[in-house]
Fold this protein.
Amino acid sequence: MKFRIRYGLQAVFRRIHINRQYKDRLFRMAFRRKRELLDLYNAVNGTEYTNVDDLTVITIDDVIYLGMKNDIAFLIGCDMNLYEHQSSWNPNMPLRGLLYFADMLRGYIEKNGLDIYSSGKIKLPVPRYIIFYNGTREAPDKSEMRLSDSFMEYAGEAALECRAVLLNINKGHNKKIMDKCKRLSDYAYFIQAVRDYAVKEPSLEKAVSLAVEECIEKDILADILRKNRAEVMNVVLTSYNVKQHNQTLKREGREEGIRAMVEVCRELDIPDAIIKEKLKEKFNLNDMDADRMLDN
């Protein structure tokens, strides 16, 4: 069996590394209240919901299968919405979405006392998957990612599909959505302000501080930045030696590819003993490292 593993390296942002998780956390902070989340939903879908009680948050804190957490999930009308933020390009988002939706639908079935073994058809909410992207890679305003693009072979209609709509929320993109949702526009402004100051300032801490001050002065995410200034600063600032950081990214990218291979092999019911020999052969691992990758 021939395995082809695709993995890439995330670019180092100029001379320093900005902790990518800060954007994820800030995104959740920006839309943790129902009012802002409802505004975002209306902007994305062209709807006019006004009652926040129409929205039920069902965000998963921890998906046991992979230990993953999603950003925002909620029910409104007939829609089960999954909103994910990404600051780095990840072609595996449809796969993650499939796992999230499976878990959310399981919870929905249990909460509503539905019986999947009954003779009647169960009515389910419609999954809607939106990825808000603001990394540095060029991307159109709107694009699609499909689970089927990751299948080893694709002939005819597959049993599973998960479609993710990717929206570029960098400053200057998706103006119609931004105009309708000030919170999202403010979020994009803050991220760009951090990037702009990072070019000018020798100290990243100074750059972030100036971005925070500018946004507070202009009433951009001011409620979050005033109350959580220290938290925002802490999660943004992660100083790296560039050489060390590059080495870390290479190691993490390689291990990500190995883990993907292990997962695929196990889904095909290939015994661990055979997988281990493949790891040693393909990646030149010793017994200890191969065992570690199997345990992860």
In short: DSSP finds eleven helices and six strands in the chain. The beta strands are 55-57, 72-76, 79-86, 126-133, 142-146, 163-168. The mean pLDDT is 80.
